[in-house]
Specification:
This protein is mainly alpha-helical. Helix content is 93%, strand content 0%. The chain is rod-shaped.
Length: 126
């Protein structure tokens, strides 16, 4: 009789252990699936984020190229005028006009550079 109770207790223990193991394994599978889904979602987000970053990088490169072009243009403007005319040989009126034109060109180039720089800063903040 004691032997029979021992077998029954052992069998109940085995059943309970099996239930707990099954429950543990089920929960572990759910967690693994959730983690896998999160990793997958993270990869998708990273891919979208990468596209966004690439767009920002391209915009930044375009702005830097534009800024270099403006710098080159500014040098050309000041260089070409100086080559065409020797300032010392100019009349007072021509000298004044030369400096006004140069100032206008530099203001235009500087304003474009500033707007490009502001846009670049705003792009980097994203």
């Amino acid at each position: 009789k004691e032997h029979e109770e021992l077998r029954r207790a052992r069998k109940e223990f085995q059943i309970e252990k099996y239930k707990q193991d099954s429950e543990f394994n089920r929960r572990k599978r759910e967690l693994d699936a959730s983690e896998s889904a999160l990793r997958h979602k993270g990869k998708i987000w990273d891919a979208e984020h990468k596209a966004e970053k690439d767009h920002i990088r391209r915009s930044r490169d375009d702005l830097l190229k534009e800024q270099r072009d403006l710098d080159r243009r500014r040098i050309e403007v000041s260089g070409n005028r100086a080559e065409r005319k020797n300032i010392a040989d100019m009349s007072e009126f021509d000298r004044l006009q030369y400096f006004k034109d140069l100032a206008t060109d530099l203001k235009m180039v500087t304003s474009k550079m500033l707007s490009s720089t502001k846009l670049l800063i705003n792009t980097e903040e994203l």
